[in-house]
Amino acid sequence: MQNEPDVKPKPDAKSTASMETELGKLIVEQGLATQAELRACLDIVRDPNTAGDSNSTLGQVLVDKGVVTTSQIGRVKKTIEATRGQEIPGYQLLAKIGSGAMAMVFKARQISLDRIVAIKVLPRKLSENAEYVSMFYKEGKAAAKLNHPNIVQAIDVGEAGGFHYFVMEFIEGHDLWDELQADGPHARDFTEREALDVIIQIARALEHAHSHGLIHRDVKPKNIMLTMEGDIQIAKLADMGLARSTEDVKSAKAEAGRAYGTPYYISPEQIRGEVDIDFRADIYSLGATFYHVVTGRVPFDAETPIAVMKKHLSEALVPPDHINTALSAGIGEVVEVMMAKDREHRYSSTSDLLVDLEAIAEGRPPLQARKQIDAGVLSGLTGADATATSEDDDGDEIRANSDLIVYIIMLAAALAVSILFNVIQLVT
């Protein structure tokens, strides 16, 4: 009996046609080809005599004609595969622009308004976890409460085909983290003025969020999007995934004892898992971000996340103007107050922080920061914070001890001069 020849299954014609159609649309949508170039290549595919190969595909012809590269075709096909099965009514998915353990993000078109949006989709395996689904919807609802030019706008949230999705404003640009990476395509060194501009915009975003009773809890370079509007760079605060209402006591108690945030930028009270986290946690994280931008390095670094967090709790901060000596003294004062380990020594409001940031931008001293520093010195003189031995002591308390020593030395010197003057008077 003869062995039957191996027969390879032919690809489903309908599936192939669908892939070709989607491929053509995305190639044009992503600016890889013009409509005229696409039509010319499609004509070749449809005319085997011209193509010289009845099995020619649109992708092959586009590559053969030098319209796109093989790698570009590969990326577009991966996008099509990733978006299949994730149909969201009212939206056309165009390209996958990001992915992580928690979600995938797609560039899409909102069909009704013919505008480009970003859609965050929760993976199916997480869609079956009630806790993750709850957090996902909390993010959408938190973002929906806010309407500010420096906050990524929320548009819609819902579920389709077993996938939970969150639609938001699409930002044509990249995140601040990309600009801080020395070997990245967007890497650059920030001037003091440029750094202030970004931080002021995010401080305004936080002021708006805080006025609505929301704490972001994860301010960091990766959650700051940068885009251009004409010649002006706009910074936008993104990702409300860890945001929490100050009135949400139930969630606060449920999260007690657990550290939520990113180790390089997390506040000491978040590390300790305190229940009453407030706006000052965001001020600390923004201060850590500010530090990174103006010095080119994170405030505290170590081999493990736990070791980094221990430094946030107990290690004195090296002032940013000691690392970047070109910085004005005001920057160092503001960052040190923003990152005081004891939140009572930080800014008493986000509005006060903005007053100082705008003052420095205008060449004036940061008076609000100096009030906080002076208060720390006075506290040290009264003995309230005369030592700095506990794990939670901060740079302000250490500075208070130094000022006390200086004060005593100056007092002793003045006394010595007075005695010497009296002796001279008696002799003469």
Structural write-up:
The protein has 428 residues and is α+β, with helices and mostly antiparallel strands. It has three domains: 19-84, no CATH class; 89-170, Phosphorylase Kinase, domain 1, CATH 3.30.200.20; 173-367, Orthogonal Bundle (Transferase(Phosphotransferase), domain 1), CATH 1.10.510. 49% of the residues lie in helices and 13% in strands. The chain has helices at 13-29, 35-46, 48-51, 58-64, 70-83, 124-127, 130-144, 176-180, 192-211, 249-254, 268-271, 279-295, 305-314, 320-323, 329-338, 350-361, 367-381, 395-427; strands at 91-99, 104-110, 115-122, 154-160, 163-169, 173-175, 214-215, 224-229, 232-237, 244-245. It has a five-stranded antiparallel beta sheet with strand order 1-2-3-5-4. β4 (154-160) and β5 (163-169) form a beta hairpin. α17 (367-381) crosses α18 (395-427). The protein is elongated, with a radius of gyration of 29 Å.
Task: Note the main attributes of this structure.
Phosphorylase Kinase, domain 1, Transferase(Phosphotransferase), domain 1, disordered N terminus, 10 strands, 428 residues, 13% strand, alpha+beta
Kindly state the number of beta strands. Answer: 10
- The averaged pLDDT comes out at 80
**Name of the CATH class of the largest domain:** Mainly Alpha
- CATH-scheme architecture of the largest domain: Orthogonal Bundle
Rg calc = 29 Å
Estimated helix fraction: 40-55%
**Which structural class fits the helix and strand makeup?**
alpha+beta
- Principal-axis shape: elongated
List the helices and strands in order. HHHHHEEEHHEEEHHEEEEHHHHHHHHH
